[in-house]
From TrEMBL:
It comes from Sphingopyxis witflariensis. The keyword Transcription applies. Keywords: Sigma factor, Transcription, Transcription regulation. One of its GO terms (molecular function) is DNA binding. InterPro entries: RNA_pol_sigma-70-like, RNA_pol_sigma-70_dom, RNA_pol_sigma70_r2, RNA_pol_sigma70_r4_t2, RNA_pol_sigma_r2, RNA_pol_sigma_r3/r4-like, WH-like_DNA-bd_sf. Signal peptide: none annotated. This is RNA polymerase subunit sigma-24.
Length: 169
C-alpha cells in the first residue's frame, strides 16, 4: 500500500489511531464493546480499498466509526433492545442481608430453645460463664461446687447448642 495522508502504511495508520478510536467507542458504547467496534472500523477502512487514495484517512475513519455507532443504535432500536454497560461499582451484587437476618433469628431461636431445655443448674452455670463472663474458678466460688462440676455443665450445654445448630442445617 502506498502512503495515505501522513501515514506511510496502513499499519502505521492503525497504530497511530487505535487509541483515539478506542476512546471514541468507549464513550459511545462502553468498555466491553469498544474493542470489537475498533476492529470493525479499521476493517471497513481497509476493505473499502480507498486507503491509499485518501487525503484525510483520519476523517474517513471517524466517519466510519460514527456510522458504525449509528447502525448499531438502529439495530438495537429495531430489535427493541436496550444495552446498559455494566458498572462494577454501581451494579455489584448485593449481599443477601435479609436472608442472613432470617437465619440469625432462626439460630437465636434454636439457641434459646436449647438453653431452655437444659436443667436449671446447667443453664445457670453456662449463662454465668457466657453472659456474665465469669471464669470457672469464680463460678466454683459463687456456687460452692468443684472444678469438674463446672466443666461438666459447660460441656453439657455446649453439646446441646451444637445439636440445635446441626438440626438447623
Amino acid at each position: 500500500m502506498t502512503a495515505a495522508g501522513p501515514y506511510p502504511t496502513f499499519e502505521a495508520f492503525y497504530r497511530a489511531e487505535h487509541g483515539r478510536m478506542f476512546h471514541f467507542f468507549r464513550r459511545k458504547v462502553g468498555r466491553d464493546e469498544a474493542p470489537d467496534l475498533v476492529q470493525e472500523a479499521f476493517t471497513c477502512v481497509l476493505r473499502s480499498g480507498a486507503f491509499d487514495r485518501l487525503e484525510n484517512p483520519n476523517g474517513y475513519l471517524t466517519r466510519t466509526a460514527r456510522n458504525l455507532v449509528i447502525n448499531r443504535a438502529r439495530t438495537w432500536h429495531r430489535k427493541g433492545c436496550v444495552l446498559y454497560p455494566l458498572d462494577e461499582a454501581r451494579d455489584a451484587p448485593l449481599a443477601p442481608e435479609q436472608e442472613w437476618k432470617i437465619e440469625g433469628r432462626e439460630l437465636r431461636a434454636a439457641y434459646r430453645r436449647a438453653l431452655l431445655s437444659l436443667p436449671r443448674r446447667t443453664r445457670r452455670i453456662f449463662l454465668m460463664h457466657r453472659l456474665k463472663g465469669l471464669s470457672y474458678r469464680q463460678i466454683e466460688v459463687e456456687l460452692g461446687v468443684g472444678d469438674k462440676c463446672v466443666q461438666y455443665h459447660i460441656m453439657r450445654a455446649l453439646s446441646r447448642c451444637r445439636r440445635a445448630v446441626a438440626r438447623l442445617q
